[in-house]
Specification:
- This protein has six helices and 13 strands.
- It is an alpha+beta fold.
- It has one domain.
- The strands form two sheets. Strands 2, 4, 5, 8, 9, 10 and 12 form a seven-stranded antiparallel β-sheet that branches. Strands 1-13-3-11-7-6 form a six-stranded antiparallel β-sheet.
- A hairpin with a 7-residue loop joins strand 6 and strand 7.
Length: about 290
């Protein structure tokens, strides 16, 4: 949040502010998925696994390349903090910052989730979103953000002057990832990364630019669905803030389980091949 200015505005301040913005990453040349080819498979899917994510906890699952994954609101409004990894190389993981730069602050139908450097490639494609009707509200809020970082015990400790809360999403993800991989807790924590906030309704205040949250519009039966471009390991926390209408890192907010379903299609999308690793030669000018 910027403080009140102490510097007098120059005479041409209005002209400087009136300069039109330019989108940082022109994406006209970005390869786009054939969404129709993906969606053509959705009427013939076989449910092969169901995972329940308990309230204020996290769970893991795998999605083979070429399969669909649905994240469902099952019992009541609840948001989830999602990490994704290459199941065969855990160093390749979801990169929320570059996903945001290439798609926008919130993701939805047709958007792709990108992996970290030096891999930088699409690892999942969003194929259905029952909340796509929401768009952006009058406050600038929308759902499925890639701007928040995940609630964590370190920020909680800072803001609460020494509080120790272990069911923040960061800690939930750390415990679940450690259990799944067998890595020691402190090592597992280093793999946990900024998330896709599934169902969370967020934005930035127009006056101060502060990150805000509001009650999620999600209701039982809503879901976000994506197609796995590579073999994926998913790890998601059912946020202790519930629908994030008041606070997170809370033992008092109403929280609900979330459900993850893995579906196998009868065939692969026409013309589909797994995305190649990024083609940059990594010489960095030397």
């Amino acid at each position: 949040m910027k403080p009140q200015p102490i510097t007098r505005a120059p005479q041409d301040a209005a002209a400087r502010k009136a300069i039109a913005p330019i989108v940082c990453y022109p994406v006209e040349t970005l390869p786009r998925p054939d969404l129709a080819a993906y969606r053509a498979l959705r009427d013939d899917l076989e449910l092969i696994e169901t995972v329940v994510v308990p309230p204020r906890e996290a769970a893991t699952w795998t999605v083979p390349a070429g399969h669909f994954c649905r994240i469902l609101c099952s019992e009541g409004p609840q948001v989830g903090d999602l990490n994704l990894f290459n199941a065969n190389d855990l160093d390749e993981k979801f990169y929320s910052g570059k996903t945001r730069a290439l798609n926008g602050t919130h993701v939805g139908l047709g958007d792709q989730l990108f992996s970290s450097f030096p891999y930088l490639r699409p690892i999942a494609t969003i194929t259905h979103d029952t909340l796509d009707w929401y768009g952006f509200d009058e406050f600038g809020g929308s759902v499925h953000d890639v701007i928040g970082t995940r609630c964590d015990p370190y920020t909680n400790n800072l803001l609460s002057h020494g509080g120790q809360y272990h069911h923040c999403c960061h800690s939930n993800l750390t415990r679940a990832f450690a259990e799944k991989t067998g890595k020691p807790l402190h090592e597992a924590e280093t793999y946990i990364h900024d998330v896709l906030n599934v169902f969370m309704c967020t934005g930035f205040t127009r006056d101060t630019g502060q990150y805000f949250m509001k009650a999620s519009p999600v209701r039982p039966g809503d879901y976000l669905e994506f197609f796995a471009e590579i073999d994926l390991l998913g790890c998601m926390s059912a946020c202790p803030g519930g629908d994030c209408s008041s606070e997170h890192s809370s033992d008092t907010a109403a929280c609900h389980p979330m459900v993850v379903e893995i579906y196998k299609p009868a065939r692969l999308p026409e013309g589909w091949t797994p995305p190649a690793l990024n083609g940059y030669d990594r010489t960095h000018g030397l």
